[in-house]
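May I ask you to comment on the folded chain given beneath this request?
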Amino acid sequence: MWNQKIAYVDLGTGKVETKYIPEEIRRKYLGMRGIDTYLLYNHIKPGIDPLGPENVLLVSSGPLAGTPVPSACRTHVSALSPLTECVGSTSMGNYFGPELRYAGFDHLVIKGKAEKPSYLWVHDGQIEVRDADYIWGQDCFEAQKSVKAHHGDEDVQVMTIGQAGENLVKYACVRTGLKATGGRTGMGCVMGSKNLKCIAVRGTLGVELFSDADKMIDVCYKLWKEKMSHRLHYMDKEIGRGGFFGNTNTIGLIRNKNFQRNQMVDGTDIEPENLDRFAIGRQACFACKLHCRFRFKLTTGPRAGEYAEGPDYTTLGTMGAELDNESMDEVLACGELCDKYGMDNMEIGSLLSWAIELYEKGIITIEDTEIPLEWDNIESKYEMIRRIAMREGFGDVLADGAELAIQRIGEESRYYCIQMKGMSNLHSDERPTPSLALNVAVSTRGPDHLRGRPIQDL
């Protein structure tokens, strides 16, 4: 695990420099978020513009990724956040992280800005800055297909942005595969600001196991045996991570209609058990046996007929309860629009439900929004999601995130906006769960459900 490299890429010049990760740094910070935060601290100066070339984009995989260790597959992305102007940090599963290690790198440090739309081609110890004209303007799904076809290899793993990232929506995300998303803090916006459409990775180098590989395999087997016998495994296996939604809705731990209520009374159809009528299979991330992601076919909405994956607990909360969508068809369609354009669905759910309440109370009107924003108007929700991604009309206001949107709409709107540190709050009610409330209050990146979710409280 000591022989992996950091690659320093200057998009402006195309220069690539590689260095081995010092053992001292590895021992201090381990990998991924630890080393990325160390690199971020040492490579950016106070007061820089998050969307300027001085910002650095960090992409990394952990020291266990690509090995048999259960669920060791995450990819971490970091930069100075354009949404919060604090530490930007997000992670995602699937296969990109292990493939990055197979290509010879644990960390990418991406500097500067390309003169024209570009992408990185990372393969077996080599990194090239390539022309991305043929994929610029494509959504997250189209771009991945195009890059795989261009390289003639379906095993190429692609981390990409959609139109939201290209248009510098402050909470644009990065995506790989049909579902894996680095959603929070606007790392897709940073990629767009650098004219970087995607990073494509293919590796055949493998990774070094620990000196006692047999002992490592034995430990992995024991971990899997313990995990597969846990009571929560049944939920993951049968209904996926969306299973938490039903429990939390029942006892009033969610947000409905921009926190006008903390329970969705008519939410029966969006319970995860109802995904069976859409599901055509199950998917898992690298080195994981749980297969917690449904693969399904959309039947309604702008993407009817398309295949997708999910939804998880977050999507059911943000695209369902927050927006008061009582139909699973509508939840899936709204969620897939966010995925297609490459936007954090937690921000979309929070900001759009906020805008609908402002419209309901007359703080904003049809003259502001151009289309009616109403709880029971699903077509308007679809259209506003598109307008946010394209920065059209009122969508341009919401595309800048909560704090800047408040400044443009007026201080009267602040009372109804649920945000912290410039980032929209979770889709849950933290009041009944003290440890989650503490987690949200002290999180380094703003409201967070992934780095301290106190499952015992639930």
